[in-house]
Amino acid sequence: MSQAQALEGQDTLLELENVHMYFGKVAALAGVDLQVRKGEIHSIIGPNGAGKTVMMNCINGLYAPQKGSIRYKGETINPLKPHLRAQLGISRTFQKIELFGGMSVLDNIRLGRHINLKSGIFSGSFYLGKTKREEIAARKFIEEEIIDLLEIESIRDKTVHMLPYGLQKRVELGRALALEPELLLLDEPLAGLNLEEVEDMARFILDINEEERWKVTCILVEHDMGVVMDISSRVFVLNFGNRITDGSPEEVQSNPEVIKAYLGEEDLYATRR
Known about the structure:
Elements: H1 3-6, E1 12-23, E2 26-37, E3 41-45, H2 52-60, E4 67-72, E5 75-76, H3 82-88, E6 90-93, H4 105-111, H5 121-126, H6 129-149, H7 165-178, E7 183-187, H8 195-210, E8 217-221, H9 225-231, E9 234-239, E10 242-247, H10 249-253, H11 256-272
Parallel strand pairs: 3-8, 3-9, 6-7, 7-8
Antiparallel strand pairs: 1-2, 1-4, 4-5, 9-10
Helix pairs in contact: 4-7, 9-11
């Protein structure tokens, strides 16, 4: 049984129904439907300008679609701002790294944790019991789990802007994980990485998705077809804002419309080697 088949009976975590997103007269998304089930890595592929990042921005609330519904755990989240969606367990990395370059690795990751802190103004001001316990727990989680998972112990106190690009990518992933998300949106996490860094990042994504401690459902936007076909449960294909298909990697690779619109014979061969 394939991974996709094993997930057939699982609950839908996120659903987009008939989503339209226009910029002037240009339809970035034209009636898009998507279902993401708990426990899967659901990749979104398509040519540049296909609407992939627009779709991610609609999911986490940066864009408000003009038509259609977005449901998370069965509840419509269209009216919710990004920070409220984050509180529900939706976290995000970006195509262009969005870190605070003058801050340390640890401080950047800690910023992703603040939305989970429940202490009130009074206890926070005086560092009373609840606040202290929360901070200790957060520090333990970040320093013993996230830092360890991403293998960045040696740079934890380094200033981010001094780090190579590949390590900055890990830090951004760590910040997204600090939220302890149930759904993680990954927008081109492999872009700009060398081969060794790509292999490491792919391994981290699989660990986040599969390890019992994490079990995070992932939506992955990526151009590296080898990685997409290797780690995805399902692959959703966009072209000029329209869905071409949504299926297992094997189904997508053999779809004539996908080959014509995006993969091409050479890329298709590369994913099958």
